[in-house]
Design goal:
Layout: H1 5-12, H2 19-24, H3 28-34, H4 43-48, H5 56-59, E1 76-81, E2 86-87, E3 90-91, H6 93-108, H7 112-119, E4 126-130, H8 142-154, E5 162-168, H9 169-174, E6 186-191, H10 195-198, E7 221-228, H11 237-243, E8 249-253, H12 254-259, E9 262-266, E10 268-272, E11 275-276, H13 279-284, H14 295-298, H15 302-305, H16 310-313, E12 316-327, E13 339-348, H17 351-368, H18 381-388, E14 400-404
Parallel strand pairs: 1-14, 4-5, 4-9, 5-6, 9-12, 10-12
Antiparallel strand pairs: 1-13, 2-3, 7-8, 10-11, 12-13
């Protein structure tokens, strides 16, 4: 294990043709999204699971900052509902804007100008982390991102200082996050991937491997800032294609470590087996590479431990869960059979309080829809783990759940 990275890290921190990958393939979607069965182990497996060694202990020694999660409002979650938000399965921009204003004002107790000043300076470079999986069905709605960008611009953030990002570049394009749709706004994927090779339709790897046999996205990741886990990754080319590295290191994207000063997290409202795939998973498995190897040995703990690293802990200032459309079963991939208009947005600085609140709501929905539900504590233990690490609030008795509409 490398010995030098901690000091250097500390000084640095003062449904289309691609549906195979997104929904239908165990090899494709399973690697990218996390095979649902691995996220739904039973109680016996959980007891037998031996947690591997990580570098978390070293990371926890790095001093926190005034921006560190759980942020300005630990334990506070605002839920805004408007039944007119979705018409003919499309968001109504004017209604979404009103919901955004109401949610931000309720969360912060001030108007949008005062809310902005709580989180940002005018020279910040702000990354908006979206979830483009399930493009057009259960992906982050463009209209929600519009409201965020309008707020930032009205308060002095230049277009070039706003970057919409995700792990995979092609998924951003699929979901409509393009330069044409968002002129002047940065659009960045942490990595590229050869879809045909991932789908098993091509044996030509020249589009994603360089002349030395390395993934062309290698330089997008920061070798000095990594989540080390004592678990080997598969050595096959399809894995390397989708994960950039196949060693014991999950590196953070340079976008996060070297460019962004603040992050806004905009996940969607959906399940992952008996758990959820919302605020913490959107970042936990979206900010690093080489992560499919972590699904079984760490279960949901990745969604907690990644938040302990300064590129996330000290930069993530706001979470807005897009529940305009929800999915109560069949996740984390998109499944139209289980989607529904939920007409809701959630606001929080505390991603763990937010996910605990949303977990309870999706369990309620699953019961209403007669889905068999396993309510074993292991599906929320990672949230309580975060509370023990001082990263958020998971105790329902301590969460302030405010509702509008």
């Amino acid at each position: 294990m490398k010995k030098s990275s901690y000091s250097s890290m500390e000084t640095r921190f003062t449904a289309n043709r691609r549906s195979f990958l997104k929904a239908g393939s165990a090899a494709g979607a399973g690697i990218i999204l996390g095979t649902p069965t691995l996220w739904a182990q039973d109680k016996k497996e959980k007891k037998q699971r031996q947690k591997p060694k990580t570098n978390l202990e070293d990371i926890l020694k790095i001093p926190r900052t005034k921006n560190s999660v759980p942020g300005e409002f630990p334990g506070r979650v605002v839920e805004v509902n408007n039944q007119k938000a979705m018409i003919n399965d499309k968001p109504v921009p004017e209604i979404v804007d009103k919901m955004f204003v109401s949610g931000m004002e309720k969360l912060t107790g001030g108007n949008l100008e005062k809310s902005f000043k709580l989180f940002f300076e005018k020279d910040d470079i702000i990354g908006i982390k979206v979830n483009p999986v399930g493009a057009g069905l259960i992906s982050t709605r463009l209209e929600v991102v519009d409201s965020i960008i309008n707020w930032l611009q009205k308060n002095g953030i230049k277009k070039e200082n706003i970057i919409i990002w995700d792990r995979f570049d092609y998924m951003l394009t699929d979901a409509g996050f393009t330069p044409e749709r968002f002129p002047g706004i940065g659009i960045e994927g942490l990595q590229t991937m050869d879809e045909a090779a991932a789908e098993g339709k091509s044996e030509d790897n020249s589009s994603w491997l360089d002349k030395d046999g390395n993934h062309i996205s290698v330089n997008n990741f920061d070798k000095d800032v990594y989540y080390w886990v004592d678990v080997e990754a598969p050595k096959d080319l399809p894995y390397l294609n989708q994960h950039v590295f196949n060693n014991k290191y999950s590196y953070f994207g340079k976008l996060l470590t070297q460019k962004l000063s603040k992050i806004i997290n905009v996940p969607v409202f959906k399940n992952t087996g008996n758990g959820i795939s919302m605020a913490t998973k959107n970042i936990g498995y979206g900010a690093i590479c080489n992560c499919n190897r972590l699904h079984r040995p760490l279960f949901f703990d990745v969604c907690t431990e990644v938040f302990a690293f300064p590129p996330i802990r000290d930069k993530l200032v706001l979470n807005i869960t897009d529940g305009l459309v929800g999915q109560y079963d069949g996740g984390p991939g998109p499944n139209a059979k289980f989607t529904y208009n939920y007409n809701t947005l959630f606001f929080a600085t505390d991603p763990f309080a937010l996910d605990m609140t949303c977990h309870q709501l999706i369990v309620k929905k699953r019961k209403e829809m007669k889905v068999k539900v396993n309510e074993h504590p292991m599906y929320t233990e990672y949230l309580h783990y975060a509370e023990r690490l001082g990263l958020g609030v998971a105790d329902l008795d301590k969460i302030e759940h405010l509702k509008i509409g």
